[in-house]
Specification:
- The structure is a single chain.
- The chain has one domain.
- Helices cover about 80% and strands about 0% of the residues.
- The chain is mainly α and about 475 residues long.
- The two termini are about 30 Å apart.
- InterPro entries: MATE_fam, MdtK-like, Membrane_Transporter-Flippase.
- It is found in: Cell inner membrane.
């Protein structure tokens, strides 16, 4: 097994792109929340940008703790879709909804209560604390909507229906663009909420997105139907989903805790460095969207192919997605490195120190972005196959064996100083990608199937459906 493209590779190109394009567009639009927030909050100054920057890893941790359940639901949905088992597709969706909503309520409540302690533990500067607390608490309240809509997106992608989330996200991003300046700066009877206004705008629009998602699932409009009977807890399935999703939660949490620990380190360098880090992280989030879309689409097709007994097709999908993602992100990284000061200046035009430091961050990390695409694709394949432990181990190694130790050592004054923080990113990305490819080549993931025996004739039906229509229909 190799990562080289084969003559038959184009047979998976059309379905991959047909699924990836709406996913990429939806992710770009959803990133519009962060871009819009960053743009308007940046007009409040470096302290406001730092408040959002320090809050993001904490919120991400809470999302990661429950994120494994959505990953498990998406994996099982894709494999049951591949096996053409509509009853189980619907059942998985309903049970995933129960687990995700319940988990989000618990984690959100804990987050609201512990927010002051979390920020004090991180050691945020006094001028950042008040704004960060308001932003963080509103973000925790909105976790239920973040979880629910993320679940909807994962389920839709699992059955190859990525257009519905795209339409919903497009509408809410436009609304968020209008609400952000209104709630941040105030107008007429609407008071100025400052940084917290960005979180309030996101809370309202994501609530509307979640409502639309629930209506579509209830009506069964796009291949999945949730009924009142399906919402009765199935303890056997819930135990199975927790076992499958637990390593995924550990994986996502390891990445989130790694970001928090890195934030501790970055915070010690002062507000300018923290603001530069926040802007660089936003840029990284945007530019990785094409690779993330390809890897997510690949995961859906890999899961469907494995469910249909077509392991070789799953392997070809992974190779193609990885190669495309690597080429695209490498080219984007080179362009971003060349335009780094202008990119940072878009977010904080009035602070030359932040522009200079943020520009240095982007110039250092951007050329290695292609390796992020390789890592995302391989890890998505592991998840789609149900090999969650591999993805978990790679995340633990990436964050705790590589990135944080490297950032700590390289950032010492006698080594590279602040630049050492930034150099930890490309070094970690390259080494983690190579480790992921090595694990992929072992082939362990090809032995996984979560749906049992494939009914006779199903494999050929799925292959024809994917090849002719671009998406499997369930």
């Amino acid at each position: 097994m190799t990562l080289a493209l084969e003559p038959s590779e184009p047979s998976v190109l059309r379905p991959l792109l047909r699924l990836a394009v709406p996913i990429v567009l939806a992710n770009l639009l959803q990133t519009g929340y962060q871009i819009t927030d960053a743009f308007w909050v940046g007009r409040l100054g470096a302290a406001a940008v730092a408040a959002v920057s320090v809050s993001f890893p904490v919120t991400f941790l809470m999302i990661a703790l429950g994120g494994g359940l959505a990953v498990a639901g998406a994996t099982l949905t894709a494999q049951y879709a591949g096996a053409r088992d509509q009853a189980m597709v619907d059942h998985v969706a309903a049970q995933t909804m129960i687990m995700v909503v319940g988990t989000s309520v618990v984690l959100g409540s804990v987050g609201v209560a512990l927010a002051p302690l979390i920020l004090k533990a991180i050691g945020v500067a006094p001028e950042v604390y008040a704004e960060a607390l308001g932003f963080l608490r509103v973000s925790f309240v909105g976790l239920i909507f973040v979880f629910a809509f993320a679940m909807f997106q994962a389920l839709m992608r699992g059955v190859g229906r990525a257009v519905a989330p795209l339409v919903i996200v497009a509408g809410t991003v436009v609304l968020n663009f209008a609400l952000d300046p209104l709630l941040i700066f105030g107008w007429g009877p609407v008071p100025a909420f400052g940084v917290m206004g960005a979180a309030l705008a996101t809370l309202g629009t994501q609530g509307l997105a979640t409502l639309a998602a629930i209506v579509l699932l209830w009506r069964g409009t796009y291949g999945i139907r949730v009924t009142p009977a399906g919402l009765k807890p199935d303890l056997a399935y819930i135990r199975r989903a927790f076992r499958l999703g637990f390593p995924a939660s550990i994986e996502l949490s390891a990445r989130a805790v790694g970001l928090i620990v890195l934030s501790f380190l970055v915070t010690s360098f002062g507000t300018v460095t923290l603001a530069a880090y926040g802007i660089g992280a936003n840029v990284l989030q945007v530019v990785t969207i094409p690779a993330l879309g390809l890897s997510t689409a690949a995961a859906a097709l890999v899961g469907q192919s494995i469910g249909a007994g077509q392991v070789e097709r799953a392997a070809r999908t992974t190779r193609l997605a990885g190669a495309l993602g690597f080429m695209v992100l490498t080219l984007v990284g080179i362009a971003a490195a060349a335009a780094a000061p202008a990119i940072v200046g878009f977010f904080v035009s009035g602070d030359p120190a932040v522009v200079a430091e943020g520009g240095r961050f982007i110039r250092i990390m951007a050329p290695a972005w292609g390796f992020i695409a390789l890592q995302l694709t391989v890890v998505s394949t592991f998840r789609a196959a149900g090999t969650m432990v591999a993805a978990m181990v790679l995340a633990l190694v990436s964050q705790w064996v590589l990135q944080f130790p490297l950032a700590y050592v390289l950032s010492r004054p006698q080594v590279l100083g602040t630049a050492g923080l930034w150099w930890s990113f490309p070094v970690t990305n390259v080494l983690t990608a190579l480790a992921a490819i090595g694990w992929y080549l072992r082939g362990d993931w090809t032995t996984m199937r979560l749906t049992g025996t494939v009914p006779a004739g199903t494999a050929q039906v799925i292959v024809e459906a994917i090849t002719e229509d671009g998406l499997p229909r369930v």
